[in-house]
Amino acid sequence: MFALAKLCCSAVLCFDVVCVPYAAAQPTVGSSPAFAHAQHLRHGINLSEWFAQVYDKRGYTREHFEAWTTAEDIALIKSMGFDHVRLSVNPQPMFTMNQPQKIPADYLIYLDAAVRMILDRGLVVVIDMHPDSDFKQRLTKDDAFVEQFADFWRAVAQHYSTWDSDRVIFEILNEPEFSDRYRWLGVQAKVAASIREGAPQHTIIAAGARWSNDDELLFQEPLRDSNVIYNFHFYEPHIFTHQGATWGEYYWHWLKGLHYPSTSESAEQLAALVPSEVDRLRVIRYGRDHWDAARIESEMKQAAEWARRRSVPLVCNEFGVYRAFSDSDDRAAWIHDVRTALEHNGIGWTMWDYSGSFGVVTKKDGKTMPDDGTLRALGLK
Fold it and tell me: Is residue 242 assigned to a domain?
């Protein structure tokens, strides 16, 4: 039995009114199935902490796979009005150094069962390759490791090549941590070519460097493959969406109750709680930057224009607000403004996440409770 609890890469450096996208905002539709498949990715949810982001000391175990997300969860996702899920998959538990094409069969059993469970409910599934930071960092400087990752992806794609190509989509890499944009262009092209060798018919999702930010999308140029959907993530401004978080920028953990839309008065009150003068100024600037629906709309317009000029389909498959320290009404307002701006610009979306710290549901004492305010913000029931 494959020891799921021990990561094989340890040797590594290691929303129900849903707007149909406006035709005027869509790029010219070509013959590629990517355009049709992008229409299946209009309003989705991320399934996190199931096959990735597992921090339990026992690791990736059968018990975790069978209990974390159940058939009842998938049925609820469908009933709430989502049309697809993005399934985060950490490659590290099934990545064997120097033999990456040999994927442990018993691990694939669990992953296949999850994908099948999603498909059986009539949802489209995006298999999102979602490794930890150490794995992504190695891709930024180790050419041989890039070759191994490409071989690994070829094997995964080949495994799923006989599955419904209209409903199973491959995402190359979640939030690349490449400071060198040009290197990421080359790495992404290399891996995409390997995926295409393994699965000639399936649609691929590509993104820009530096955590898939929307401004990084604007630097990206299309791959030499017409069956590709392009993607970006949107958490702007992070100072609001990640307030209270203990990862990312250190000063975020001081922020609790920062309001949206931003105003100078509310931001300056909260800034007084931040010890560092430099970080205090960043909070004050948030208030003066007038983050509101119009500001968000202008950001989305730039992304939509990028796709239109290149005649490629576009989605935003992560956006959300950390729940713990944000005001629930402010959080709902931001989600509503992002969702409506995406739809107004013809961009399909996938919220982060289902039941995690940004979730559309909460789980407690064995009960799953949908957040009605979040669902209303998403235009769902």
Answer: no
